[in-house]
């Protein structure tokens, strides 16, 4: 009887908490940050495809506008949050804010604002770069890296804002925020995989360099999301969402007619160039989640070593044979989209001719680099574990 | 993306993230100090004067100006392609050149030139007489890098400091307060941890900035290497057997010799090399000779009689891709007792360039140049000469009675040749009636036109079929001086089997 009496208030309290949590809504500035990230993601993918199909004719392309709108949106919305938190003494987020240079605001807002500033600073730098060295037709240049750092910061800041809110929340509201967390995480994974794409072309997939680069880009986010989320399939969910978004670009861009506006033209391009078919990261992500639940009580390094090795081995196991298919004429279709090339790629290019590029020049060098890739996979997983643990503690 | 780019990726293992990718191919150079291209020719029924203002960096924007010298043109489209090879097959969407509001016969537009190398600009004219097309070969290459001006450098440096201090402060704030429950004030341990994080962040930021600076330096060096590749190669000369001049091309760029095969140069109006020897410093003697190619890519010329002295060397060749190179150097020659000149070889002796250090006024520019047989070449110009102005340099050949000469013949297939040389030899352009393009490159460009007919080619080239037929005594050269200064213009024509040279000095404002 006494047990019954003592339980009732708890049940009532939990229900009320859930009901209250269900009515809570995600703050507007998080949605602004998410929108900013989406602008940057779509803008970046569109811009790359635009450069491959049309080339640049003016600065004012829609893709460029989306990218810079991302910086402006994140910068202004987060600056507004910081200013209101600082100067409105009764601001609801004041107690859950950090201080910097006399200002107060959510940590993620500071990071997003920094990202917006970095993106905007990159614009005059990039403009000077083009004037001095010519228009760069590559992803990696110092001003582009500053731009990428800005975009990365906005994504990371968005994640931190979501995490701070999520780690303070309970019940249904927390579940809602966890779904947003996965959404925020896929863009971080997409960012690092995207930066590495000059090394992940199919012609490199039978070289150890390719696997080394992917290990630099992917396992860290698998471990981060797994440790920060309570979901048993965290890595799988994130990677599945990432793959789905990626496929939208792969299948969507070719539907948009486009013609080169710059020359010389080496390929007969009639539409926007498809983003490469996504890497088969979904398989090692599933393996990651399956292994993780069996070794949950091990030490951090032991877990990182096992998970990193499992990720690398399973990725090699699926991507290596899949690369054979991607290099074959059978993959030259709308689904796998391997048969369309940017206008500036000569027909003599190994990419067009489906010729493997040997990134290592001896058996020993190959295995040495694969060993390095294994070490990197373990290390990045371990870093992801620490990040995940730190992120679970984020409250502001 | 070429194989070279892929290889460069592989080689840049240490910079997997901060990669340096080499761009494009490595083509060739046009004239010395005169990168803009001037061309006059027919696009079907329309006679056009085309000027291509080349960008100083590649990829960069070229400005295209088209003056229609035939009436009835309603639209002009422009499009860039490679001169030869696969890139010459698929033109991008043409850009529409805009007609001037003041002069409906003048059109202008801009084109992105994305690659270095032998390119062409196709000009498509449409109008009352139907459509026509012509192709202008252009040598696309990076000319220089631009240093950052101090104002911009100051602003960017301040912004860099702001971002660097900002990210360090954010890291400190994160370590100090991010994990605290709402409302809790950070304690000493939080501040201690923040200090450690700030120190580590400072080290990381400095390391990143250092890496960034190193990367920037590598990019700059890489770009400068491309600029150097296109600088005029040195004409290395040696004298053998008393009068045999051997000429070899040498570039400071370590890979130039690998990529440019002097043994595979193509004939440019009947000769593999056009060698100009001009006496230093006054240009009072000039030889236009045509050395033979030796095995291994050297050239040899048995010199005619020449007085001892120092000579400026300009040697024009066109490589197999259609790129014009000009080899540049100087040579000290002893008194040469050589063979008599023959064929298309020619020479000129005369007064030195008028007081190069004290510019003459435009009114004093020489307008008539006497010829040895009593005739003259008259330069029909009246306006002050200005740098960067596209002009038709019109000359009339007169006989000893002052009447238009009736015995002018094609000289190497053309009505004439002109060499524009600046007093300090920083500018040298070998120009033809069709313009400043090399004739070999022009032939390659014209070959790609769908309606490539003699009507679509320049008048000068069409004459090559009948070398001994008399031609009109007027000859014009489309060109523009690239910079102010004193210039000497050598105009060479052929009369009654003899090559004759008229010389004009010009002050350019």
Classification by helices and strands of chain A: mainly alpha
End-to-end span of chain B in angstroms?
44 Å
Structural class of chain B: alpha+beta
Secondary structure: number of strands of chain A:
2
Shape of chain B: elongated
Number of DSSP helical runs of chain A: 13
Give the strand line-up of the largest sheet of chain A: 1-2
Summarize the structure in words.
The complex is a heterodimer of chains A (396) and B (509). In chain A, 67% of the residues lie in helices and 2% in strands. Chain A contains 13 helices and 2 strands, in the order αααββαααααααααα. Chain A has a two-stranded antiparallel ribbon with strand order 1-2. Chain A is globular and about 65 Å long. The relative contact order of chain A is 0.12. Chain B has 509 residues and is an alpha+beta fold. In chain B, a hairpin with a 2-residue loop joins β7 and β8. The chains are: A mainly alpha (396), B alpha+beta (509).
List the helices and strands and how they pair.
The complex is a heterodimer of chains A (396) and B (509).
Chain A: H1 2-23, H2 28-53, H3 62-87, E1 98-100, E2 103-105, H4 107-133, H5 142-168, H6 171-195, H7 208-217, H8 219-228, H9 234-252, H10 282-294, H11 300-326, H12 350-353, H13 363-393
Antiparallel strand pairs in A: 1-2
Helix pairs in contact in A: 1-6, 2-3, 2-5, 2-6, 3-4, 4-5, 5-6, 6-9, 7-13, 8-9, 8-13, 9-10, 10-11, 11-13
Chain B: H1 3-11, E1 37-43, E2 46-53, E3 60-68, E4 73-82, E5 95-99, E6 106-113, E7 117-127, E8 130-140, H2 150-177, H3 188-230, E9 234-240, E10 244-250, H4 256-259, E11 274-279, E12 285-289, E13 292-293, E14 299-302, E15 309-318, E16 324-333, E17 346-349, E18 368-370, E19 376-379, E20 391-398, E21 408-409, E22 417-422, E23 428-431, H5 439-447, H6 459-462, E24 474-479, E25 485-495, E26 498-508
Helix pairs in contact in B: 2-3
Task: Write a brief structural summary.
The complex is a heterodimer of chains A (about 400) and B (about 500). By secondary structure, chain A is mainly α.
């Amino acid at each position: 009887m006494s047990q019954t009496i003592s339980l009732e208030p708890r049940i009532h309290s939990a229900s009320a908490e859930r009901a209250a949590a269900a009515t809570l809504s995600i703050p507007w500035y998080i949605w602004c940050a998410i929108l900013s990230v989406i602008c940057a993601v779509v803008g970046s993918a569109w811009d790359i495809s635009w450069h491959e199909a049309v080339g640049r004719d003016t600065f004012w392309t829609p893709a460029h506008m989306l990218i810079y709108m991302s910086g402006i949106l994140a910068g202004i919305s987060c600056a507004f949050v910081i200013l209101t938190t600082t100067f409105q003494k009764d601001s609801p987020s004041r107690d859950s804010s950090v201080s910097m240079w006399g200002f107060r605001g959510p940590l993620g807002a500071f990071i997003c604002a920094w990202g917006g500033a970095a993106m905007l600073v990159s614009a005059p730098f990039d403009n000077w770069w083009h004037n001095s060295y010519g228009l760069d037709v590559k992803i990696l240049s110092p001003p582009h890296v500053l731009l990428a750092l800005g975009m990365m910061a906005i994504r990371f800041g968005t994640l931190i804002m979501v995490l701070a809110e999520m780690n303070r929340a309970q019940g249904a509201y927390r579940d809602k925020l966890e779904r947003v967390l996965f959404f925020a995480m896929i863009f971080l994974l997409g960012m690092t995989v995207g930066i590495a794409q000059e090394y992940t072309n199919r012609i490199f997939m039978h070289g150890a360099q390719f696997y080394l680069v992917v290990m630099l880009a992917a396992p860290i986010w698998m471990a981060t999301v797994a440790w920060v989320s309570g979901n048993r399939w965290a890595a799988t969910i994130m990677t599945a969402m990432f793959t789905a978004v990626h496929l939208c670009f792969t299948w969507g861009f070719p539907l948009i007619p486009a013609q080169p506006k710059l020359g010389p033209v080496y390929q007969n391009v009639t539409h926007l160039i498809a983003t490469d078919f996504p890497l088969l990261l979904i398989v090692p992500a599933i393996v990651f989640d399956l292994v993780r639940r069996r070794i949950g009580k091990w030490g951090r390094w032991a877990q990182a070593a096992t998970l990193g090795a499992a990720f690398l081995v399973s990725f090699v196991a699926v991507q290596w044979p899949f690369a054979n298919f991607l290099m074959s004429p059978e993959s030259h279709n709308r689904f796998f989209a391997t048969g369309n090339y940017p206008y500036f790629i000569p027909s003599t290019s190994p990419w067009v001719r489906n010729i493997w590029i040997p990134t290592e020049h001896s058996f020993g060098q190959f295995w040495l680099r694969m060993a390095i890739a294994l070490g990197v996979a373990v290390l990045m997983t371990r870093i992801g574990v620490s990040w995940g643990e730190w992120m679970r503690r984020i409250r502001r | 993306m070429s194989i070279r780019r892929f290889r460069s990726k592989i080689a840049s293992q240490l910079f997997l993230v901060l990669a340096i990718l080499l761009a494009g191919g490595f083509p060739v150079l046009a004239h010395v100090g005169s990168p803009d291209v001037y061309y006059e020719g027919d696009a079907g029924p329309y006679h056009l004067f085309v000027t291509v203002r080349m960008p100083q960096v590649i990829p960069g924007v070229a400005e295209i100006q088209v003056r229609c010298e035939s009436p009835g043109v309603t639209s002009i489209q422009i499009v860039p392609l490679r001169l030869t090879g696969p890139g010459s097959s698929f033109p991008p969407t043409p850009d529409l050149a805009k007609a001037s509001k003041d002069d409906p016969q003048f059109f202008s537009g801009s084109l992105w030139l994305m690659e270095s190398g032998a390119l062409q600009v196709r000009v498509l004219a449409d109008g009352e007489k139907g459509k026509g097309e012509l192709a202008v070969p252009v040598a696309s290459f990076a000319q220089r890098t631009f240093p950052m001006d101090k104002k911009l450098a100051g602003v960017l440096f301040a912004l860099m400091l702001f971002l660097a201090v900002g990210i360090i402060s954010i890291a400190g704030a994160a370590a100090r307060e991010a994990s605290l429950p709402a409302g809790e004030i950070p304690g000493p341990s939080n501040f201690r941890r923040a200090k450690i994080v700030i120190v580590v962040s400072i080290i990381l930021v400095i390391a990143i900035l250092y890496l960034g600076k190193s990367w920037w330096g590598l990019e700059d060096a890489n770009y400068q290497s491309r600029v150097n590749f296109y600088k005029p190669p040195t004409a290395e000369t040696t004298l053998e057997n008393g009068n045999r001049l051997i000429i070899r091309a040498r570039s400071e760029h370590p890979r130039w010799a690998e990529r440019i095969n002097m043994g595979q140069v193509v004939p440019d109006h009947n000769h593999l090399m056009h060698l100009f020897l001009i006496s230093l410093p006054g240009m009072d003697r000039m030889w236009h000779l045509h050395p033979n190619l030796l095995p291994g890519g050297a050239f040899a010329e048995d010199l005619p009689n020449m007085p001892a002295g120092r000579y400026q060397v300009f040697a024009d060749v066109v490589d197999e891709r259609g790129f014009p190179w000009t080899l540049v150097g100087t040579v000290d020659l002893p008194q040469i007792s050589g063979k008599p000149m023959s064929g298309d070889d020619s020479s000129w002796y005369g007064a030195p360039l008028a007081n190069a250090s004290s510019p003459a006024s435009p009114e004093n520019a020489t307008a008539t140049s006497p010829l040895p047989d009593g005739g003259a070449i008259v330069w029909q110009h009246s306006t002050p000469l200005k740098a960067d102005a596209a002009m038709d340099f019109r000359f009339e050949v007169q006989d000893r009675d002052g009447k238009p000469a009736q015995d002018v013949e094609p000289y190497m297939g053309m009505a004439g040749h002109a060499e524009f040389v600046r007093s300090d030899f920083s500018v040298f352009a070998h120009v033809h009636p069709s313009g400043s393009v090399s004739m070999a490159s022009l032939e390659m460009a014209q070959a790609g036109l769908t309606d490539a007919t003699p009507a679509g080619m320049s008048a000068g080239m069409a004459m090559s079929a009948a070398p001994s037929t008399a031609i009109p005594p007027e000859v014009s050269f489309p060109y523009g001086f690239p910079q102010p200064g004193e210039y000497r213009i050598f105009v060479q024509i052929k009369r009654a089997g003899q090559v004759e040279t008229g010389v004009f000095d010009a002050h350019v404002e």
